[in-house]
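Ticket reopened. Same input as before:
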Amino acid sequence: MNSKENSADGPSQKRRHGYTEQEITRRLIEAIFEQRLPPGERITEAKLAEIFGVSRTVVRASMGKLSEIGVFKKTPNLGYTIAAPSRAEARMMLDVRKMIEPGMVHSIALTRSAEDLERLNHHIATEEAARNAGDRSTLVRLTGEFHLKLAEISGNVYLVHILTQLQVLTCLAILVHAESETGCPRDEHSSIVRAIAVGDGEKAAAKMAHHLSHIADELQLDRPRPEPSLESALQWLGGLGRAS
Amino acid sequence: MNSKENSADGPSQKRRHGYTEQEITRRLIEAIFEQRLPPGERITEAKLAEIFGVSRTVVRASMGKLSEIGVFKKTPNLGYTIAAPSRAEARMMLDVRKMIEPGMVHSIALTRSAEDLERLNHHIATEEAARNAGDRSTLVRLTGEFHLKLAEISGNVYLVHILTQLQVLTCLAILVHAESETGCPRDEHSSIVRAIAVGDGEKAAAKMAHHLSHIADELQLDRPRPEPSLESALQWLGGLGRAS
DNA sequence: GTTTACTTGATTGGATACAATGAAAAGGAC
DNA sequence: GTCCTTTTCATTGTATCCAATCAAGTAAAC
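Engineering reply: fixed in the latest deploy. New output:
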């Protein structure tokens, strides 16, 4: 978090405004996408306030909203951690996305403009560039943002809002549970765009449904242990205790 | 805003805490459901703080979150109003619900337990009672909560969250635009539950899709004027000016 | 050595004071 | 009277202070 152009602006020169709450929220989400804030990491109001050069009041509002949507886990009077979604939670968020996104691309396929296609193709080209360059953290961010771009193109503000939340959470789930942290698989995005381009809503929806299923597959099948829960950890410790 | 059972809970007994942020948020949403907070109403932090007997700090957090999800409209440095969704916004929120809720009931139809059906039937009976009693504000709240109950039964926390937001917004849209403010039409709810009861996911989804379309119809067809926008109003005034 | 009670430290929770903002009213010049 | 400036006022925005809470460590009792 080296965002201290702040440190150069003179010692006692009073900034009219520090970062605003929305800017802070945006930066935190960005940091998660780029894996600078790993799931499970503990984080305090005071620390963030210092980093952004504002009082706790402002970061508190931001962290409150991020907690509300499940990006931070907050335990009262204790503190915050970056969420580390369980497999069950990951499945739930992908279930919701499976309800939403196929319908969304179906709708888009029937209404898309030339400019929309331009944007989508450009985005996919950028994805490919990052993939070829081996820039993993950028790739994860971009593949996530693809889905948000679709929401924007749909023109539905509520979709943008909802999918932004779900996308951040999905990103965290992938970081926790997926083996290959490459974000969305290969070129499924481009096949979705192709279906949109020819106006085939059904096909676009089907492709999107498959795409989301593939993401879900990665989360559920990779690791052998079904759920490294606290319960099993305690059981393990108990067995150890008895053995020694 | 007559929600002062507060005045009954002991005169000078010092509450360790006043209302918590979540309680305040819940009550505000409840008040909207019951039409004690009409769309367009202006509302200030100080006023709410006084009503709930807490400082601005707490209500501010609550109002911030409500603004985030679009229930309040907030203009910086000026104030808040209860949202009065435009027809375009109403259409968008119902579009999203059409993407989500049919799939949701489809899923529920395949997994519902006897207890789930019990809860749903009980809720519908309560709805009917309110309808027969002519208790309109309770009816609006209950018909809205039916959809939330479904989300709860699905067991998906993200669905509960998302639909809670959309439901409140839909309620506001209905209050602004619908002719008959009776909430959800007749006994469409019970036909959905019947399909769920027999495990027919396809039928439940279809019924829900129709149900949501009916709500959308009410919002778009009732009033003659397509959109009483500021633009058209100015144009009208302009014409008047030239004519006089 | 184990348990209990107490202290301490770190962190959030909430209230208050003050600054910043913008709208509307008041005042003055022409 | 109209236009421009100034003042005032209501409201939000931010910082700071202190209280509340919980965990963990410490000391004392048995």
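Residues 16-17, 44-46, 56, 60, 74, 76-80 of chain B lie near DNA strand D (CB under 10 Å from a C1'). Confidence is low (pLDDT under 50) at residues 1-16, 222-244 of chain B. Please confirm and we'll close it.
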